[in-house]
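Render this sequence as a predicted structure.
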Amino acid sequence: MNAIIARPPVRALARKELRELRRHRMIVATAAILPVAFLVLPVANLLFYDPARAIGGPDFAVGQAMFCFFLTPVIMPATMAAYGIIGERDQGTLEPLLTLPLSDRELLAGKVAAILLPTLTASFAIYAVYMAAVAAVVSEPVRSPALDWTWPFGLLLTGPLLALFSTLTGLVFSARSKDVRVAEHLSGLVLLPSMLPVLLIVTRTIEPSLLTWLGFAAVLALVDAALWKTAVRAFDRERAISTV
């Protein structure tokens, strides 16, 4: 899919999609508020950590904080992706979009790129702010576990794959649903259970390590590849136009 995204027509479509997203205030507000909340809560959790009252110790507190940063690239794309096809249909802009000289794969790749760019930018930006805040104001015993290299390694490795999983899931439901809200609800039902492996890692039921993250990333890559094929099959131009 990377080769498809690199094509000039796909990049042009992605730029158009990004410009149009800014006009949808509800989508932009949802995408902006969540990262801010996911930044404030983890920092506050570690800043006011009390060993006498905390449950599970420093590692558990750090895992709770990190769960928010793995949740960000999953939740942020969900609304944008669910709107991706059905939203165009509702606004009457889908048919003009389908007249562009783009194949189905290129059209979907442009949608994916326009969603992933702001998602990953926001996800990594708030994590960078979090790491700076931890280094500056958070004290032991949670400071050292929070700055452990395995966490940024895991997020940088799996964050884009999680965001792609969420985006493709939303686009599949958006291509097949007749209502934006239905697409959003169906995406949520699939995405939340998919966070179970992340939950097992952040709670240290599975110890976070190089091999753990590499194995998780490999599984995600396979799932994303299958979802990409599913999204291409789910998007049918004739069906889309006929349901306008």
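Summary. The CA atoms of residues 16 and 114 lie 8 Å apart. The chain has 13 helices and no strands.
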